[in-house]
Amino acid sequence: MDLDFVRSQFPAFEQPSLQGQAFFENAGGSYTCRQVIDRLFRFYTEHKVQPYAPYAASEIAGAEMDEARARLSALLGVTPQELSFGPSTTANTYVLAQAFRKFLKPGEKIIVTNQDHEANSGPWRRLAEEGIEVLEWGIDPTTGHLDPASLEPLLDESVRLVCFPHCSNVVGEINPVTEITALAHAAGAFVCVDGVSYAPHGLPNVGELGPDIYLFSAYKTYGPHQGIMVINKALAELLPNQAHYFNADVPYKRFTPAGPDHAQVAACAGMVDYFEALAAHHGAPVQKGAGMGGFVHDLMRQREIALLQPLLDAVKGRNDLRLLGPSVAEDRAPTVALALGRAAEPVARQLAEYGVMAGGGNFYAVRALQAMGIDPDQGVLRLSFTHYTSEAEVTQLIEALDRVL
Fold first, then answer.
1. Distance in angstroms (rounded) separating the CA atoms of residues 227 and 293
2. Cβ–Cβ < 8 Å for 144, 325
3. pLDDT digits (tens, 9 = 90+) for 343-370
4. What is the rounded CA–CA span in Å between residue 388 and residue 371?
C-alpha cells in the first residue's frame, strides 16, 4: 500500500494541530476522507434544498442521494433497494427491534451475545418485555471467543433471529459470519450482524456473506455521521413498515421513520470515491462494484495485519496487563483492548502526553467486559487503528506504552 497516497486523501494529516499526534481511537470514529468532505461541502453550498422537486438544484440533490445508495450498495454486493440510511447504527437497530416486536409472537425466541456493543444487544433484549424469549450466546470468559459450536444447542424451531457482531469492539476477534449465518438459516432463523467494528477494515461483500441484516457506521468508515443498514428484500417485505404509511412500498424507506439527512446521505458517495481511488492507484483489475470492494478490502487487511502483529507482540507477554482477544493479527481487527487491573482512562490521558490519542472506558461493551471478569468502571485501554496508520506511529505507541505502564 502506498501510504503517502493514502494519507494524502485525508485532510486531517495536513492539519498543524495534529502533527506528531498518533491517532489510536479509530474504533470510536475514523478520520474523514477528502472525497466525503468535498461532497458534503458542495451539497451545503450549492444545492442545500429539498431534494426531488422539479427544479435544477433539487434534482441534483436527489440525484446525489440516489448515487450514494446505488454505488454503496454495488460495493456491498446488494441491490439499492436493500440499503437504507439512518442517523446511527444504534438508532437503526432500535427501529428494527420495533419492527420485530410486531412481527414476532410471544414464545418465539431471539438469540443475542454478550460480545456485542450494546447497540446490537440492548434493543433486542428489551423485547423480553413483549413476551419474546431472549437467549444469550455467551463468550468464553477467558478468551472472549464466540464459539459457533455453543450456538447450536440454542437453536430450535422457535428461534426467529440470531444477532451477533462481525467483530467485537473490545475482543477484536473476527467472527465467521458465513458459518454462523448458515447454522441460523438451517434452523429457520434470520440473522442480524453488527458490522460497525469490522467495516472500517474493509467493507465486506454482504451479498456473499449471507446475513439478512448487516449494519455499520459511515463515520467509522471514513464517512459522515450516518448509520448504514442492509436488509434482505424478502425479510424487509415480511417486517411491518416503520415509516410513514405512504412510504411503505419503498423498501429503503420502510425502516427510516424520520426524514433522511440529505447532505450526509449524498456525502456517503464520497466513501466509494475513496475506495475507487485506492483501487485505481494500486492497479486493481476491477475498478467498480463488489469486485473493486474486494480488492480494497484485501489491500486494507494486508496493511493492517502487518502493522498489528508488532503491537500484539509488544503487549501479549506482559504480566502487568491482559490482552483481550487473539494475539495473532490475522484473526482479528486492529482494535486492541488491554485490561490493566486499574482505571484505564488515566492511562489514556498519560499516553496523550506522548502524542498518542487513545481511549479508556467500557466502550458500550459492558456485558463483554463483565463476562471476562473485568470491572466496567475500570474499563480497558483501547488502541485502534486503520490502514492509514504508519509504522512510525505504531512505534510511537509501543514506546509510549513502555513509559506509562
1. 19
2. yes
3. 999 999 999 999 999 999 999 999 999 9
4. 33
